[in-house]
Please model this.
Amino acid sequence: MKKALRKQVLQELKSLSAEEKEVMDAWLTEQLLLHPFYKEAKAIATYLSFPHEFQTARLIEQAQKDEKTLLIPKTYPHGKMDFVLYEPEKLERISFGLLEPQGDFTILEPSQIDLIHVPGLAFNTSGYRVGYGGGYYDRYLEHFPGHTISTIYPCQIQNFQPEHYDIPVEEVLIYGRNF
Model:
C-alpha cells in the first residue's frame, strides 16, 4: 500500500509546474516563519530538498539571518540518523542524489533541538506521514522531545492508516490551509 502511495504522490509532485511550486513554496515558507514553533526555536533541523519537494532554501537562508542554530540530517545504515550543524562547505552528493555532510561535523542531541521541519511524501489529516521508506524520521522522532512541523502541497494529503511504529508530525502546514 505504501509503495503504491509513494509512487502516486511522487508522480503528482513531479507534475507540478515550476510556477505552481514557486507560489506554494513562498506561501508555505511565510507560514512557517510566522509560526510560533519557528519564532520560539533556537535550534532548528530541516532537510535539503529534492527538486520535487517543498524547497527549503528560503527557510535555511532566513534561519541563518535570524541567527538560529541550523541542522540537517546525516544518515547511516539501518535507519539511523543524526542532526548535524549545517555547514554548506562540507556537503557532498551521496546515493539518491542527496547532499549530506561529510568529514568532521557537529552532532546535536535530540534534547538540544527545538524544532524539526519534517519531510514526507504523503500525510493524512492526523499528521501521520509516508516518507521514502527508510524509517529514519520515525525512529528519530520516537524519542524527540521538541516540536515537529511539515510544509506540504495539497496533492500530498492522502487517506491511509498509519503503521504502529509511525510517529505523527505535530503541525502540518498545507498550501491554502492548515490542520
Observations:
- The helical segments are 2-15, 18-34, 36-40, 57-65, 136-141.
- The longest helix spans residues 18-34.
